[in-house]
Amino acid sequence: MASLYKPKNLKRRTVNGKRVPVLDRKGQPVYRTSRVWWIEYHDVDGRRRRVAGFADRSATQVKAGEIEKHVERQSAGILTVDHEHTSKSVSQHVSEWVSDLERSGRSSMYVSIVKARVERLAVELVWKTLGSVRADKLSAWLANERRGGASPRTTNHFLDAARAFCNWCVTQNRMETNPVAVIAKARVTEPSRKRRAASLSELAAILHTAPPDRSLCYLAACLTGLRRGELKQLEWADVHLDSTTPHIALRASTTKAGRADTVPLNGQIAGALRVARPKGWQATDRVFRVPKVQTFYDDLKRAGVERYVDGEQLDFHSLRVTFGTLLASSGAPIRVAMELMRHTDAKLTTQTYVTPQLLDTHGAVQSLPAIRTVPEQQRATGTLGCHGGNHGVKGVRERVRLSAMGRKDLSGQQAGNPGKQGVSGSKSGVVNRSATKPTLGVEPRTSALRKLCSAIELCRRKQAVSLLSANGHDVLRC
Asked: pLDDT tens digits, residue range 409-438?
């Protein structure tokens, strides 16, 4: 059974900078009774616990009943919230959460970011204990931030940090449920920051005007795709220039994904690193002196490179976009580009990290192979569109032979009496169709031929047959 009591505390005062007990006239210490009722109970392990209640005795009795009920449920094997954590402040929970994140191996950058976000929420929303974390207050705060100019992506980051913190509290039996899990994220229609890749002329200007140490850093970012934080933590022990294939071995603690990766080096950056490596270098020496963000913008201004073009900006991370664009321009397969960019999503590689304006789309179209509009076999035989009957190969051969014979036999008649060409000698003047000679180089005028052959193919076939007939060759020998 839980019991209620008011503890008596020794009354003290400050004398000469020291806290000393207050004594009465008889020299006895004076005790002061607490204003708040306290609850004393035994937990599931039999240990005696003391928890502060309220100034009101009835309210404290209700809390004591909840504690007894909680201990009974724990004894029955039912997981409930540990009331030992209910009196802790949110700042104490955040400190323990951060320690658990560091123990699990999360990067220091991630830990510092989520800690700052949750601490800001705790201050502005007055989160004193876990019981004061409410979804309606957080939702109203996020809406107010959106009205103040914050992007949907920014408000989603704060919501993700609050969800992660509350989820950890649930797994640690500090909260029964996650109160902010019901809040929906804001819809992100497009990236808040559009980046573009630097062209080759812009890169040449930047590398020429920047100091040698920063120029080497910019060149490495363009030819390796390393992020700014990865370049900043790169040590000479990670750079293998004397191996058969020069490469950089990234440590898992320095990468964004938290995994060890290998980045190959091409001849230009490998040679530049060999020249820049000092003679007495140590394994733990840093390779680059990564400039600040504003310093990069100053280098752009000195090089005469515009930072914003058509709403897309050029910042330090744009050098990684430049690396992806160079890979696409060189014709690297998508899977190879994903491996070099160290991505797991092809959509991220092909859309976010490639600037289409710098791709040689015209050259790609011009390099397409020519497509034949006529099958090769029909082009060789001159039988385009002819199918079956007298319109096949044998029909064409017969008509070419008759055309050649008619040209020789009727040469005189055509010159002497061209008006009676193809007419029989009968006095009736009736045309003998069987004796009519086919016109030189003209195919039979049939409806089937018109249906099967296009106008272009018909003209081409007329020219081929006329030329072969004039030379006395069989059309099938061409």
From this structure: 544 444 444 444 444 444 444 445 444 454
Q: What is the largest CA-CA distance in the chain?
A: 169
Given 364, 385, 420, the domain boundary residue is 364
CA–CA separation, 92 and 270 (whole Å): 50
Q: Is residue 82 part of a domain?
A: no
Instruction: Select from 339, 97, 321 the least CA-distant residue to 199.
Output: 321
**DSSP reduced 3-state for 33:** strand
Where does the pLDDT of residue 357 fall: very low under 50, low under 70, confident under 90, or very high at 90 and above? confident
Q: Give residue-wise pLDDT tens across range 229-247.
A: 999 999 999 999 999 999 9
Task: Supply the Cα-derived Rg of the chain in whole angstroms.
Answer: 45
Residue 198 scores a pLDDT above 90:
yes
Rounded Cα distance, 231 and 20, in Å: 58
Per-residue model confidence (pLDDT) at position 196? 93
Domain membership flag for residue 161: yes
The residue with tokens 């020496």 is 285
Q: In terms of domains, do 208 and 345 share one?
A: yes
Task: Name the pTM for this structure.
Answer: 0.55
Secondary structure element (H or E) that encloses residue 49, with its range: strand 48-52
Domain CATH number, residue 226: 1.10.443.10
Beta strands in 293-450 (DSSP E): 308-309, 312-313
Cα separation, 438 vs 396, in Å, equals: 12
Q: What's the domain range around 51?
A: 3-75
Last residue of a domain, one of 18, 45, 75: 75
Q: Is the dihedral of CA 257, 259, 262, 265 positive or negative?
A: positive
At residue 441, the 3 state secondary structure works out as coil
CA atoms within 13 A on the CB side of 380: 4
Element (H, E) at 401: helix 393-409
Q: Note whether residue 251 is domain-resident.
A: yes
